[in-house]
Amino acid sequence: MPDRNINPKKLGFVSEIAVKAKLVIRLMKDKRINPLLKLLPFAGLLYLVFPDFLIGPIDDAAILFAGSYLFLEVCPQAIVQEHLQALLAEREIESKKVKEKDDIIEGEFHDLDE
Prior knowledge:
By secondary structure, this protein is mainly alpha-helical. The protein has helices at 13-29, 39-49, 60-74, 77-103.
């Protein structure tokens, strides 16, 4: 059974949140995911717009996290892994491009012989 969690050694806290958000978006667009499951992230967003529907002090971030976490848990695991691997591969390619750009130092040459 493949692991659904993103390897924390590869990603930082903010990067992990960004990857999970992109993963939710990609799964929402995937036609293989049951439309009823797609209501979970929308329920979290709906709570942000109308927070008075629930009684008690519930943190907005916790609602969004719980909705997206539950969505990722109930989606078919093979589809989640497929999208996660694609996102991590894209991230790796982008990271290599940034490193290649960092190796190039642009400048101008001026002869100082007077």
